[in-house]
Amino acid sequence: MNLWLLSAAALSLVTTGVHVVAGGPDVHDPLLALDMPPILKVYVSLLWHASSAVLAVNSIALLWASIRRRHREALAAAVMAQYLAYAGLFMGYGLAYVGSLWQAPQWVVFLLISALALLGLRPAHSRPDTSAA
Predict the structure, then answer these.
(1) How many domains does the chain contain in total?
(2) For the segment 12-42, what is each residue's pLDDT rounded down to a tens digit?
(3) Within a domain: residue 132?
(4) CB-based burial of residue 37 (10 Å sphere; 0-12 exposed, 13-18 middle, 19+ buried)?
């Protein structure tokens, strides 16, 4: 088992939980309470729940990559690419709309998960790996 990738998977799963449990009441629900056309509420909910699904699928992909060597690099790279893109979006929109990186600090966790996954892709002799799977 690749402990770096397992750590990335665990942090991704925690992030998914925070998104669903805390983000719903703090972000999704207030957006739905705004006076807007029903179709915009459909899109708000679709995008919110699509984000939840992507976070969950990425967590599973990292977990799988931590357990099995087959497709490890491809799975981890796909998740890292998405999470690095998310980090860039959070940083860019945070700076553009509120002039701060800290109003929407989710970029930090996406960079951290990506860094953990990258550490997990180092050659076997330079990282902890508890099995030869």
Answers:
(1) 1
(2) 999 999 999 999 999 999 999 999 999 999 9
(3) no
(4) exposed
